[in-house]
Amino acid sequence: MATEVHIHDPQALYEQWERSQWNPWDVDLAADGENWQGMDEGDRGLILWALSSLLVAEERIATKFSSLVMAYDSEEEESFLATQQVDEIRHLQFYNRFQNEAVADPATIAAHVTRAREQLSDSFRRIFDAALVGAHERLAADPRDRAAKVDFVTTYHMVIEGTLGVTAFHFISDYLRREGLLPGFVDGYSHIAEDERRHIGYGVWFLREAVDGDPGLGDDIRRTLREMLPAVAESLTPPDREGTDWEALGASAEEVRDFALGGLRRRLAIVGVPLESL
To answer: What is the pTM of this model?
Structure first.
């Protein structure tokens, strides 16, 4: 039995969404373009790498989420999952607007994504172009396949949002606030992080329910995590860093690793699949 804690069900998460609307075009980016040009070249390169990762991640997620919406088990779950699809499009629009107004010449989303992909590692592609796309295709083929749904939610909510996304937000936003840089981006990124906390809450709820109903599904969660965690560690390593002893944006590799695994450990304990059991 999973640890007894209070977590929000899809209806509560839907109601939270209704109270948490924001508009990507209400975010003030007036100072960000000048900030961007004035940043230290090395740090700007790291931020560009991070922004590229965020943009490509949102494009992949926004276009590969419909299978989970189709796999709903109740009208309440369907309602919440539909809001999450809207959130992902909103995030993609905000990142694209930031590219247009602060980073590069205005272009289509596809053009920005193509340029951003040049910054990314093979490990990032394994997560978003192989694992996520594969999970989406298996679930789309059979929305009633419980193991496929567990695989998708583990890949997306536990790994992509709950590990990569939360970790990126923590260290990037801390650095930008500390340095007084890109205030508009930080504002929009903070709204995105709030949305993703709600999404992760759904993932924890669903996986806990799934494992409580069929403990054997815990093995599917473990298998997915064992396959993905090496690529996650590589994806969190900046492109010009090597090994396990590096520093970027004022954070050490050990700090990044401990933060990422700490959050994953807490969520898996609630689900009932301890990280140590992998």
So the answer is: 0.93
